[in-house]
Amino acid sequence: MAGAALLLIAAGWTTSWESIHAAARDIRSVQAAFTQEKHLQILAQPLVSRGRLIFAAPDRLRWEYEAPLPSVLLMNEGRVQRFVKTGPTWTEDASAALPAMSFVMQEIGRWMNGRFDENPEFEARLEPGGRIILSPRKKALSTVIQKIVLQLADSPGVIESVTVYEDDHNFTRLQFTDVVVNQPVDPALFTDHP
Amino acid sequence: MKHFLLPSFALLIMACHSLPPIMPAEQTPGDVATVCDAAFPHRAWRMVHTITTDLPGGRRGVMLGVVSLSPATNTIECALLSIEGLRLFEARDDGTLTIRRALPPFDRPTLAGGMMQDIRLIFFPPRGKPVATGINPSGNPTCRYALADGFLDVIRRPEGTYLLERYNRRQRMIRRVEISECRPPGVEGHGTVPCRIHLEAMGANAYQLDLELVEARPVLDKQGSGP
Q1: pTM of the predicted structure, to 2 decimals
Q2: What interface predicted TM-score (ipTM) does this complex get?
Q3: Do B61 and A93 touch (CB under 8 A)?
Q4: Which residues on chain B place their C-beta less than 8 Å from a C-beta of chain A?
Q5: What's the angle, vertex CA A53, arms to CA A172 and CA A55, rounded to 5?
Q6: Could you report the per-residue pLDDT of B194-208, keeping only the tens digit for each?
Q7: Dihedral (CA of A147, A24, A161, A94) sign
C-alpha cells in the first residue's frame, strides 16, 4: 500500500512547479553518466562526447568529459574553473568561452535544485509528460540560445535529457543514464581535477 | 665586442625570417612538386581539432575547431566551440565570407578574415604551380609559390612532417606552420590529414596555436567528393 502511494507521488512529481520544487527539496546529491551529441549544420554526423555529472546541493557541480577530450568543469562556492588534458598533463583553461560556461553551470545548478522557473532571463513553460521549455525573454540572449528543452525522468528530482537549441540547425542534446540520487559525494570532487 | 655581436645577432634573426634562397635539387622539379603537394588534403573532409593557445600570464585556452573543407569547390565552413559544445563562432567562405555566428570576443571585425586565411594556409594547396622547387638552406625539399601578396614555401622535412612558411610582399615571414600528417582511425583508404599543427603568427599581433585532431571523416556526398 505504501509502495503504491510512493509510485503515485513519483508519477505525479512533474505535474506542477510546486510538485517539482517539492521533489527537488529532497535531493542532496545526483551522480550520473551522460552522452552529449553536438549537432552542427556543418557536420553530417553529430560530435559525440561522454562524461559524468556530479551535483551536491545547493550549488556544487562537477561536469567531466571523459572522451574524446578529457576535461572537467568545477563549480564550487560560486567559482567556476575548467581543467583540460592537453597531452599527458592537465592545465587550467582560461579561454574566452569560460564566462559563457559559468552562466551555463549556474543554470544547471538551478535545474538540479528544481528551480527551472526562477531565472528571470528565461520564460519557463511546463508541458504534460514532464517536459519543460525555457525560452529567452530578451532578444540578445535568443540570438545565442533559441530555447532549452528539459525532459524530466520518472524518478523524482531527476532530469532525463537536456536539449539546447542554438537555432533550427544547431543543437546539443545531453542524455543522462545511471543516475544515482542522494549517495555520499567526496567534497574534493568539486575542487580537484584528475 | 658586445657592440659588434648585437647587430650581427639582429641580422641573423632577420635572415631567419626573410625569404631564403632555394638551391637546385637532385630530384626533378616535378618530383619535388609532388612531394610538396602531398602536404594538403585533396578531397573533402570534415575534421574536429582541439585548439590550444597560450595566453598572457602562463595561462592556456582550449577550444574545439570544426572545419569542413571542399577543395573542389574552394569552400570552407568552420566553427569554434567551447569544449562543452557551445558554438562561439561559425563562418563559411566560398570566395565570399559569410559569418553565421560570432559571440564576443569572436565578433571582432578582423578575426573572421584572419581565421579563414589561417585555415586556407593550413588545409588548401596554393593555386598554380610552384615558381621554384629545390632544396632550402636546411637541405629539405621545398616548393615556392607566388601569391597575390607574397610567397609560400612548402617544405618537406626528413621525419615526414611539413613546414609552411608564408612571407609577405616585403619577403618577411608572417606565418610558420608545422604539420604532422596521419591516417585518421576508422577511415581507411582516404589518405592522410593534418593531425598535429603548430601555427605561429609573427608581427604586431603575434600568436601561436596548437591543433590536435579529435576526429576526421571524409565527405562522401557529391559536394567536392572523390579521391
Answers
A1: 0.83
A2: 0.79
A3: yes
A4: 46, 48, 50, 52-53, 55, 59-64, 66, 68, 77-79, 81-88, 90, 101, 103-106, 210, 212, 214-215, 217, 219, 221
A5: 125
A6: 999 999 999 888 899
A7: positive
